[in-house]
Amino acid sequence: MIKFIQTVAFVVAVMGVSGAIDHLLVQPFLSQVLNFFNRVVIPGIPFLEGYELYANLFIAVLAVTILIVSDRLDPNRSDK
User: Fold this and answer.
1) Rounded Cα gap, residues 13 and 46, in angstroms
2) Is the dihedral of CA 77, 6, 69, 31 positive or negative?
3) What is the per-residue pLDDT across 24-40, written as a single tens digit (0 to 9) for each?
4) What is the predicted pLDDT for the residue at 30?
5) 38-68 residue pLDDT tens
6) Is 5 in contact with 69 (CB distance < 8 Å)?
7) Most buried residue among 24, 50, 56, 64 by CB atoms closer than 10 A?
8) Residue 24 contacts by C-beta under 8 Å, 6 or more apart in sequence?
9) Is residue 16 within 8 Å of residue 63, measured between CB atoms?
10) How far apart are CA 1 and CA 79, in angstroms?
């Protein structure tokens, strides 16, 4: 289950960074997949209007935080 959470968090982090890039420039590489939050979810939330860049960066930071926490909770992790 931890690996699934880490995989999803990694994909969401990449989507957040890609959405931020797409907001500043046009991101043509896999834009329909990587920019789903930026093009579909965020415009549908009225209080985020004007704060799209911050929302994408928040999504990326939240996903990286989940990656770090899930790595620390992983029972198969070996500290050397």
Assistant:
1) 23
2) positive
3) 887 666 677 777 777 88
4) 67
5) 788 888 889 988 898 899 899 999 999 999 9
6) no
7) 56
8) 53
9) yes
10) 20
Side chain identity at residue 48, one-letter code: L
| Residue 36 pLDDT | 79
Please provide the DSSP assignment of the chain as one string: -HHHHHHHHHHHHHHHHHHHHHHHS---TTHHHHTHIIIIIGGG-GGGTT-HHHHHHHHHHHHHHHHHHHHHH-TT----
Torsion angle, CA of 69/70/73/74, rounded to 10 degrees?
A: -150
Residue type, 62: L
Distance CA 57, CA 78 (A): 31
Q: Work out the burial of residue 79: count CB atoms within 10 Å of its CB; fewer than 13 is exposed, 13-18 middle, 19 or more buried.
A: exposed
